[in-house]
Amino acid sequence: MKIVVVGPGAIGSLFAAYLSKSKEEVWLLDKDKERAALLYASGISLEGVSGSWQSKVKTTASPGDIGTADLILICVKSFNTKSTIEEIKPILGPDTKLLTLQNGIGNVEIISELAGEERVLAGVTSEGATLISAGKLRHAGRGETVIGAIDGKTPVQLRQIRELFNKVGLECKMSRDIKGLLWSKLIINAGINALSAVTRLPNGKLIAYEGTRRILRDAVTEGARIAKRKRIKLIFDDPLAKVEAVCENTQDNFSSMLQDVLKKKRTEIDFINGVIVRLGQELGIDVPANRFLLDLVKTIESSYAQQTQ
Ligand code: PAF
User: Most buried by CB count within 10 Å: which residue of 87, 179, 263, 277?
Assistant: First the structure.
């Protein structure tokens, strides 16, 4: 199987490094030519919960080097999904599957529209990874990855992917309810990411202080209320307990949004708390904690140039 991981961020690099342990042909596609050359030469080095190890991953900036892929893992930021799908069209064959492992809501729809719904698989991962610099990764916490197909079926490719992930050490399960899965991850990200970006705290510390505990609880409860109104079944019965457990299991991790803010980069806020705020307006449900987090992160993003550090 030819597997392409698109996006050399924390999750993309983590999956590329783990999958390179298999016998499959694994590529990492990075649109930045210089960084791709660096990663090709020096590989990806990891430290953290999985020990210290090094992985050689074939990296390129040019889809033409790769040829037709069997499986493509989409690990780019949600606001880059559209342009990424356009860029990878040359490596799509008739049977190529696209598995999105991105945060937020909206990616499945974009990929389906541009590449065809029949190709799309979606997954959520609770693996915690922090990119220290290009190709240097801290595997800060282990968590399972759950994957599914849009139509709720479990085609042979989906089972093969689950087996492959498990074989290389990425704990993986299948689900028949992708919507429930993506919304469950949305609730986790809505509780953790913006709050950690604003406070600059690692995930574990968000539940160590009364104030952040309360905001986290409110953001999660509001998100769960929207999901309920939309008749989306979350994969856990107690959303707050689940989000707190993710904070504990990935306690040293800097959430992806905190990593973005520290690098003064655009965040995925519109695809996370922004989705809850938009739906809250549509459905007439008050979501003040999500509104507050959305406003703060938007302000941080727009004022990078004025910030002291
Ligand atoms: O976006 C993230 O950082 C991750 O999805 C998670 C699970 C919140 C861990 O940091």
Answer: 277
**191-306 fold:** N-(1-d-carboxylethyl)-l-norvaline Dehydrogenase; domain 2 (1.10.1040)
- 196: buried, middle or exposed (CB in 10 Å: 19+, 13-18, 0-12)? buried
Amino acid, single-letter form, for residue 277: V
Report how far Cα 223 is from the mean position of its chain's Cα atoms. Answer: 18
Q: Check if 180 has its Cβ closer than 6 Å to any atom of ligand 1.
A: no
Tens-digit pLDDT profile for residues 173-208: 999 999 999 999 999 999 999 999 999 999 999 999
174 CA → ligand 1 middle, Å: 20
Supply 305's token pair: 């140039």
Domain 2-176 fold: Rossmann fold (3.40.50)
Nearest atom in ligand 1 to 126's CA:
7
Answer yes or no: is the C-beta of 145 below 6 A from any ligand 1 atom: no
CA nearest ligand 1 atom 3, residue? 255
* Location of each CATH 1.10.1040.10 domain in the chain: 191-306
Residue with CA at minimum distance from ligand 1 atom 7: 126
Question: Is residue 113 predicted with pLDDT exceeding 90?
Answer: yes
